[in-house]
Amino acid sequence: MQGVDRAAQAYVDAVNARDLEALVASFAQDAEIVDVSRSIRGHDAIREWAGNEVIGGTLRVVSIAEDRPDGQKLLVHWAPAGSGGWRAHYDFTVGGGRIVKADLQYA
Fold first, then answer.
1. Statement: 6-106 belongs to CATH 3.10.450.50
2. pTM to 2 decimals?
3. Which residues 6+ apart lie within 8 Å of 38 measured at CB?
């Protein structure tokens, strides 16, 4: 098994560093995030979502659940600020070295 994809790792590192701009930069300009059932598309929407709901939390990769040529599904432990957190599947589709889609679902 390989390690975590570089773009996905950039997202994880940005969350833990509380670096909003680095988080946004890990995504392609027209990327989409599916956060359980909400669709968030493009850098401006991703910046707003992450600033309100992600930055301040912690994210730890537990394991790589699936490796694909176009990305990975990771089992993570996500803990928003002030919570004990929970496990989730973060499925990253990558193109051109950036995340083009992130599907974030409860595990």
1. yes
2. 0.95
3. none
